[in-house]
Design a protein that fits this description.
The complex is a heterodimer of chains A (85) and B (303). Chain A is mostly helical. Chain A contains one helix and two strands, in the order αββ. Chain B is 29% helix and 27% strand. Chain B contains seven helices and 17 strands. Chain B has an eight-stranded antiparallel beta sheet. In chain B, strand 6 and strand 7 form a beta hairpin. In chain B, 57% of the residues are buried. Classes of the chains: A mainly alpha (85), B alpha+beta (303). At the A-B interface, helix 1, strand 1 and strand 2 of A face strand 2, helix 3, strand 4, helix 5 and strand 8 of B. Strand 2 of chain A pairs parallel with strand 8 of chain B.
Amino acid sequence: MNDTQSRVGRRAEGHRRVGKATAWIAAACTVAAAAFGVVFATGTSDAQSSASTSAASSDSGDTVQAPDSAPQQSSGQAHTGSGGS
Amino acid sequence: MTEIVEFPVWGTTAVLAVTDHPAEAERLLRAVLHDIELACSRFRPDSEVSRLHERPGREVPVGPVLAEALMVALRAARLTDGLVDPTVGGAVRALGYDRDFASIMDGPVVPQAVPGWHRVLLDAERGAVLLPRGIELDLGATAKALAADRAARAISAMVDCGVLVSLGGDIAVAGEPPAGGWRVAVGDSHRTAVADPQAVVTVRTGGLATSSTTQRTWLREGVPQHHIVDPRTGLAAEVVWRTATVAAATCVDANTAATAAIVLGHGAPDWLVERGLPARLVAASGEVLVFGGWPADRQPQAA
């Protein structure tokens, strides 16, 4: 078995495990949410609905927000860098 | 005149650039970082998130900083349909990467299913969390970006200056920028980007972040691994892109989109375009793609 086949096999195993876990997770969420008194299990409401302690980062809308303006091409010495860390 | 201060933090580098009052700004930045670390670090046994892990299945009171960090992480998960999921902690450890490279394990990769963000129950109003048994949170990505956003806002408001905060290349800016804007070099690594930039852009508002599959890499049984987990498989995301750099209204949103792009792989361009996000993707082959108004790379000058 070469590296690619091996990787595909591991990925398939990952999918299988995730699928198997899904049904159990749904049931567990329903029970836990009922006990906790807050229903987040559907994914349609989450912490944002009770964001009283939130600052701008966490209440900035229902989608990933684009910037006011796109970056512009530049040259010269940069103030800092952005890359993997 | 722009003042720049650098110091190590969380295994990476903090860069603070301000148009005025560098000492006061640095004090505020360090205070924000301290607050976030005490709330969110899974490597500190005395952090709030560590205490949360010690009490699974029970309602645990949390402070406002962890509540906000959880809100941010859950929002990122919701907006990406779970591509950026804070419950990947166990899966990352299963891949062999825990605290540092010295402790990376070798041996066969046994993928661990990611429990899923829906299972985290947060009542931010009351400041309470219930973490079901078996969930290990990793707030690293969004918490770092949140720290940059919080620090930039605080410094701009309290010191009244233009400010750029970079935490490992996750960048937030606030206030009036210097003439010409904040110049940011983009590259595979934030450490080498300034000296060896692939592109240089100017930003004036919001945030900019890069996710990369070329940093924090290791081998397990000869198979390359990196630190960005695909929650759908529990494995390191397939390497379609070397780097994904995104600009957004906040550093959190930029980081969320950049991480989602890496996980999405071939689906990233459509996902980014649909959201109108300026982005620059570098394919594994080195090909560069830009979207959403991101400027084309400057062509190298002929010798």
